[in-house]
Design goal:
Layout: H1 18-27, E1 46-49, H2 55-58, E2 72-75, H3 79-91, E3 96-99, E4 117-120, E5 127-129, E6 135-139, H4 144-154, E7 156-157, H5 168-174, H6 181-184, E8 191-197, E9 203-206, H7 212-221, E10 228-235, E11 237-238, E12 243-250, H8 255-266, E13 273-280, E14 284-290, H9 294-308, E15 313-319, H10 321-328, E16 345-352, H11 358-370, E17 377-386, E18 408-416, H12 428-443, H13 465-470, H14 474-484
Parallel strand pairs: 2-4, 3-4
Antiparallel strand pairs: 1-2, 5-6, 6-10, 7-11, 8-9, 8-10, 12-14, 12-15, 13-14, 13-17, 16-18, 17-18
Keywords: FAD, Flavoprotein, Oxidoreductase, Signal
Family: Belongs to the oxygen-dependent FAD-linked oxidoreductase family.
Domain FAD-binding PCMH-type: 66-239
Length: 502
């Protein structure tokens, strides 16, 4: 199929007019006089423009409050179709935004600004596991929920996140902390190969022996900065026979004890355990996931309970690893986690190499418990995700190695309701609360001489953000960027730049 100017039907538009056509032409760069007419694609590839009836539902990311207007959203069904779209964008100086799951904290999956060409990879669902090497081949549009189901059917798992709506693309390219990462390493540390389309529209293979410098860069800093990854090869592992999940809650008065104990316990606990601690306005909750039975899980928890005292409520579930993963989804349909599961949310992140100081806990107490929170907010929280274990002992170097030695990362977040559950409605008092909270924590940051943050939870308000994400790796990343994408086709507000800011 070739999309041609005379036929509006060739755009797969449900509702279009010549007025809308001219509006889009006006929005394109001066060198462009057509609306994506040079994309060659198969009949299964579709294009959504600002003329399309479903544009308003497709242009939003997971967090509805980001209200950006991409130039178009393209859904290629083949690698060749995706490559053609990239060549067109490059020729017309249009930035390309890959979208796998759309979970970016700053909506970078839709460009993080107006006017990008979004290439949505939902049609890339290939999956297999090599019986000899146990390497899983995974299409870049796959979400974790369906992926876990497919892996479970083969008796395997990969270390990845707890949220089933997350796409394999973003988590694999930026880090990936969650189930089994303390036992097997972060998701990105387990990527052994990728198929990528570069800014010239060339399909290349990337591994430790093929384009090794790009392989290093993609694993930890590759989310949309260097090219469009269409397929991942990820080391999978035999699933353990038994997994236990224990969820415990304490009253809010115990939050300081829990934070102290959690950091101390987490620094030495068996690497077969993953844990997430949530401090909210009404409770403190700890979820522990362990590859063992109930008795074994209780044993590894006992040192923590010796410091905190018994919880007010405990729920224990013993089963297989897929059962544990479904509990982590917290009510989301694991096997069908599409973008209908939206939220209005603002999140930010820091990482810690030791237990939080009392000054930081004072800030948390002020913002979570004592300050006046926005009336429209439905939840405020701080989540602590446990790192360490195999994350600190990677087999192949990657950008993500900068975070070796981190005890836990934190997310500070606020959620709010929107009348009518409509997208594109911001809450100014909510976003201000979020920024004020983040700034207050940064002012007393105790983990080191400079702020360190997790690149998969990017924050455009973070001072010296590139240094916080990548540390001394930044110049090397810039060198890779100049070699693979010198015209900055793959760009967004916090993509790897072509040169360091002065």
């Amino acid at each position: 199929m070739r999309l041609q100017k005379p036929s509006l039907a060739s755009f797969a538009l449900v509702a279009a007019s010549w007025l809308c056509w001219t509006d889009i032409v006006a929005a394109l760069p001066a060198s462009t006089d057509t609306c994506m007419v040079d994309i060659k694609g198969s009949s299964n590839s579709t294009l959504t423009t600002q003329c399309s009836a479903d544009y308003e539902t497709q242009r939003f990311a997971f967090d509805w409050n980001f209200n950006y207007h991409p130039l178009a959203i393209y859904y290629p069904s083949t690698v060749d179709d995706a490559a053609a779209a990239i060549r067109y964008a490059a020729a017309n100086k249009i930035s390309v935004a890959p979208r796998s799951g759309g979970h970016s904290f700053e909506a970078y999956g839709v460009g993080g600004r107006d006017g990008s060409l979004v290439i949505d990879l939902k049609n890339f669902q290939q999956f297999s596991v090599d019986p000899d090497t146990e390497v899983a081949t995974i299409g870049a549009g796959t979400r974790l929920g369906p992926l876990y189901t497919r892996l479970n059917a083969t008796g395997h798992l990969i270390p990845a996140g707890t949220c089933p709506t997350v796409g394999i693309g973003g988590i694999s390219l930026g880090g990936g902390v969650g189930f089994w990462t303390r036992l097997h390493g972060a998701t990105t540390q387990n990527v052994v190969g990728m198929t990528m389309i570069n800014a010239k529209g060339e399909v290349i293979e990337v591994s430790k022996t093929s384009n090794p410098e790009l392989f290093w860069a993609l694993r930890g800093a590759g989310g949309g900065s260097f090219g469009l990854v269409t397929e991942f090869k990820v080391q999978a592992y035999k699933a353990p026979p038994v997994v236990t999940v224990i969820v415990m809650t304490w009253p809010v008065e115990k939050f300081r004890d829990l934070i102290h104990a959690y950091g101390t316990w987490g620094a030495t606990v068996d690497k077969g355990a993953f844990a997430a601690l949530v401090v909210s306005g009404t409770y403190v909750e700890l979820m522990v996931n362990y590859q063992g039975n109930t008795e074994q899980t209780q044993a590894i928890l006992q040192p923590l309970l010796n410091m905190t005292g018994e919880p007010t409520n405990t729920t224990t579930t013993e089963g297989n690893w897929w059962t544990a993963a479904s509990l982590g989804g917290r009510g989301v349909d694991v096997e069908n986690p599409d973008l209908q599961h939206h939220r209005n949310h603002r999140g930010r992140s820091l990482v810690y190499r030791g237990v939080m100081s009392d000054a930081e806990m004072d800030v948390i107490e002020s913002y979570i418990y004592n300050s006046t929170k926005p009336e429209t907010s439905t939840k405020v929280y701080v989540t602590y995700e446990l790192w360490g274990g195999k994350i600190d002992d990677p087999e192949v170097p990657s950008v993500f190695d900068y975070h070796k030695g981190v005890v836990y990362s934190i997310q500070t977040g606020i959620l709010w309701d929107v009348p009518g559950n409509k997208p594109g409605v911001d809450c100014a008092e909510c976003t201000k609360w979020s920024l004020d909270f983040s700034n207050a924590l940064q002012a007393v940051y105790s983990s080191g001489d400079k702020i360190e943050s997790y690149q998969n939870y990017m924050d455009h308000d973070l001072p010296n953000a590139m240094d916080a994400y990548f540390g001394p790796n930044l110049q090397r990343l810039i060198d890779v960027k100049n070699a693979i994408d010198p015209d900055n086709v793959f760009s967004f507000p916090q993509s790897i730049p072509l040169k360091q800011e002065s």
